[in-house]
Design goal:
This protein has about 90 residues and is an all-alpha fold. It is about 80% helix and about 0% strand. It has one domain: Monooxygenase, CATH 1.20.1280.290.
Amino acid sequence: MEGHEIIGFVAGFGTTFAAVPDLLVILKRRSSKGMNPTMAGIMGTFQIVWAYYGILIDSMPVVVWNIIAVVINSLMVGAFFYFARTEKN
């Protein structure tokens, strides 16, 4: 692995897992209050584009971190809709 790939993995780690604390708070309090699913949806959409870009330029760090980020943002959106539905009942 080349030096620039190591920097890419380190940078990607930070930006990818930045949303995890919010996800954990939502899951812990079991509530969708204060969460904006639109932002997570937009981020997830553009992370798919970034992953595709990573494939085009053959950059493993870009692909890996953005796929993980898509999963995290999908969980955020899923948790929002799950808890929003249960809060209405």
